[in-house]
Each structure stands twice: as structure tokens, then as C-alpha cells.
From TrEMBL:
Keywords: Membrane, Transmembrane, Transmembrane helix. It comes from Pontiella agarivorans. InterPro entries: FecR, Ferrdict_sens_TM. This is FecR family protein. The chain crosses the membrane at residues 75-93. Residues 163-242 form the FecR protein domain.
């Protein structure tokens, strides 16, 4: 059985994953007996609805938002279902409550638990928050409140620090996260995306918990990274954490320098190391600009990069291509749908193209655009990539010069030493 047993966690988890039969029965009993639980169930259901529909109303996209699991199998408690229907019905059928009006009239009242320490959003994008029916947009001086569901579009970044302690959270673009305080204990639900944390020593009996669709990380004080996609991947930089597969109710302690994930079977944690591979070649196809790699569909300009990973020993666990966004006689970056293909390194972008990564969104000048690669498509030796943009986008210029910051291939590998 899952270790998530208390009322607030079970209600939140109902909207994130398939509960076990025992968990579902526990939640049904709670909703039948506890008025407060029914009210909380309604509040969470309303915010989940807002999260989904806000993006359609504002034209924003989080690529994997629609992969959140369907709620067709509803809780069979008449009072809860009726209350939820009434609440959502008012939102769905109201002709006056537009998203913009909700943002303008929102008055958040939940307690402040953290403050934003770093904020970046590209022009035309916003990092938005839903909390108890209120919708607001964050900025560099915003507070984070208990119950906030934070939506970070592709190309944007957000960091915050908890009050009265040196616990820092960094969230990458294309992330969806729910932050909450439960009786003094920190709870973070990462629905999708990337999270890294530097966690100060937590009070006895009140560890921080980071939950994804299929895993739970219990933290007393450490530094770690979590990636939540089709499965959850954990890398521990400092200290130790407890890592639990919720699908199989299996747990393990993962120490510093070790990696684990929720693959089909929870294998023993692996020691890992990080490598940064510099490019053998960076250039623009069909368009010449020194010190830049240009991607522009109007000019038929495509990026071309070659990396040699022949000297890498050990299984590749993660691979990320990091590109520094720059500009040519302009202050902004770029926006659009970028597609990365693996190609034959000896054919200068010609021949068969195999899709290996995709980015949809914007990134500003001076920021890094990150593409997570399908490691199964990498091969020993030289790997070449072509970067293209769909028509209708705003061209990207990337640094190709080492003095600025050339593209780099970041690898996380199982350490065989």
C-alpha cells in the first residue's frame, strides 16, 4: 500500500494517479464522514479544472498537461459529487467570469510559505498560479502560498526559498507543481517537469515530501534533482533520501552520487557521474553567420552539431542538450516549435532524420534552452544533430562560440569505476 495515507495527501493524489483499492476505500470513508474532507475535495477539484482550462483560455501550452490522468471513475459519495458538480458548474457555465477577470479580482488568502528568488518568463508568457479558485500571475517579488499550483511554461524558470530557512527550490520550464504546507511539513507535488532542491535540515518528524505520479521522495536535508515524465527519475547530489515507487509500494534509501527511477522493476540505485561534452562542430546549414547557430524557417536556416561520445564509459542514464540563446542586433530571444533530429555525421544534415527531441515555447536572450534527448537513440562515437523550426515561429540565434557558450551535451552516466 502507498505510504501516502493522510487526508490532504489522499485527496490531492486522487487527481494525480490511480489510487489503490485500499486508498480509494479510505478516501470514500473520509468523504462520507468528514465535512472538511468534502470541502477540501471540492477545492482541489475546482483548482484542477482551472489548471486545465486556463491554458486553453490564454492560448498557453504545457506539452504534457493533457497526459494527466482521466477522472472518469469518480468517488461514489453523493454529497461530494453534488458539491463538486455545483462548484464546477458555476465555473463552466458562468458567462462573466473570464480568466482575465479572475486574475484581476483574485485575493489570495492562504498563508505565505516561501518567496520567489529568481523569475524568468519570456515576452508574452507568464508563470501563473491557481489556489482555492483564485488565479494570479507571479513576478520576481511574489510570495508562494500554501496550496499554490504553479504553471511554468516552456522556456521559463522559477526559484523560491522557504521562509526562515535555506531551503531552495528551482523549477524548470514546462513544469506543473503543487506546493503545500501540512502542519509544518513541506509537500511538493510535481505533476510534470524538472525540480532541483537544496534542502536544509528539516524538523524531526516533519520531512519534506516530493510526490510525482508514480513516486515519492522523502527528504530530511539534502540536495537532489527530480524529473517527472513517463517515469520519475531521482539523482541525489548530497545527503540521502527515501525513494518509493507508488505503483509497487517499494522503497529504498538513495545516497549522494546515486540515481534511481521508477522503471518496470525498482532496480538497485546506481552510482552516477555527470559529463559535459563539447561539440566537435557547430554551424548553420543554408545560412552563414560566424559565432552563431541560426534556426530560421524563413531562411531555411538549420542548426548542425556534432558531438563525439566515443570515450564515454558506462550506461547513459540521461542526456540533455544545452543551447545558449543570443541575438543578432536585437534584445529578445526566440519562440516557436523546435525539432531536433539525429542524422549521419558525415552527410552534413542530408539523409535520414530521426526525431530525438522537441521544444515548444520561447526562450530569452542570455538564457539556456534545454532539450532532453531520448538516450536510446544515441550511439557510441560521433553523434550529429540537426535543429529545425516549424514555420510561423520567431527565429532563434544560438551562441556557437566558446567565448560566449557553445552548445554542450550534458550526460548523466552510470559510474563504472
Amino acid at each position: 500500500m502507498s505510504p501516502i495515507k493522510n487526508k490532504p495527501d489522499l485527496i490531492s493524489e486522487y487527481y494525480l494517479r490511480t489510487l489503490s483499492a485500499d486508498e480509494l476505500k479510505t478516501l470514500q470513508d473520509l468523504l462520507a464522514e468528514d465535512v472538511g474532507a468534502r470541502e477540501e475535495f471540492v477545492r482541489v477539484g475546482r483548482d484542477e479544472w482551472l489548471l486545465h482550462h486556463m491554458h486553453h483560455a490564454e492560448g498557453q501550452r504545457i506539452i504534457h498537461l493533457l497526459s494527466r490522468r482521466s477522472r472518469r471513475r469518480s468517488i461514489q459519495v453523493i454529497a461530494a459529487a453534488a458539491a463538486l458538480f455545483a462548484t464546477l458548474g458555476m465555473l463552466i457555465f458562468s458567462q462573466s467570469a473570464t480568466i482575465s477577470e479572475m486574475i484581476a479580482s483574485s485575493r489570495p488568502s492562504a498563508p505565505v510559505i516561501a518567496n520567489v528568488t529568481d523569475y524568468f518568463a519570456v515576452e508574452g508568457e507568464a508563470i501563473s498560479v491557481v489556489n482555492n479558485g483564485h488565479v494570479r500571475k507571479l513576478n520576481s517579488t511574489s510570495a508562494i502560498r500554501s496550496g499554490d499550483r504553479v504553471i511554468i511554461p516552456p522556456g521559463c524558470q522559477l526559484s523560491f526559498q522557504y521562509l526562515e530557512e535555506q531551503t531552495d527550490i528551482r523549477l524548470g520550464g514546462n513544469s506543473l507543481v503543487h506546493v503545500k504546507d501540512v502542519e509544518g511539513a513541506k509537500r511538493i507535488r510535481l505533476d510534470h517537469g524538472y525540480l532541483s532542491a537544496e534542502v536544509a535540515r528539516q524538523p524531526e518528524g516533519r520531512p519534506m515530501r516530493v510526490v510525482t505520479r508514480d513516486a515519492e521522495v522523502v527528504v530530511l536535508g539534502t540536495s537532489f534533482e527530480v524529473v517527472a515524465e513517463e517515469r520519475t527519475r531521482l539523482s541525489v547530489i548530497r545527503g540521502k533520501v527515501q525513494f518509493t515507487s507508488l505503483d509497487r509500494s517499494e522503497s529504498r534509501i538513495v545516497s549522494a552520487g546515486y540515481f534511481s527511477d521508477t522503471s518496470e522493476k525498482l532496480e538497485p540505485a546506481l552510482p552516477f557521474m555527470k559529463l559535459r561534452i563539447k561539440p566537435e562542430l557547430v554551424q548553420t546549414l543554408n545560412f552563414s553567420r560566424k559565432k552563431f547557430m541560426v534556426v530560421d524557417p524563413e531562411r531555411n536556416a538549420e542548426g548542425f552539431m556534432v558531438f563525439d561520445i566515443g570515450a564515454v564509459k558506462g550506461r547513459i542514464l540521461e542526456a540533455r542538450l544545452r543551447l545558449r540563446v543570443t541575438a543578432w542586433q536585437k534584445e529578445y530571444g526566440g519562440r516557436g516549435d523546435l525539432r531536433l533530429y539525429r542524422v549521419d555525421p558525415d552527410q552534413q544534415g542530408e539523409g535520414r532524420r530521426i526525431s530525438i527531441a522537441h521544444f515548444s515555447g520561447g526562450a530569452g536572450k542570455g538564457k539556456d534552452l534545454e532539450l532532453d534527448l531520448d538516450v536510446s537513440l544515441l550511439s557510441a562515437g560521433r553523434n550529429a544533430f540537426v535543429l529545425t523550426m516549424d514555420k510561423g515561429g520567431n527565429d532563434f540565434w544560438f551562441s556557437a562560440d566558446e567565448s560566449e557558450q557553445a552548445p554542450v551535451l550534458e550526460l548523466k552516466i552510470a559510474d563504472q569505476r
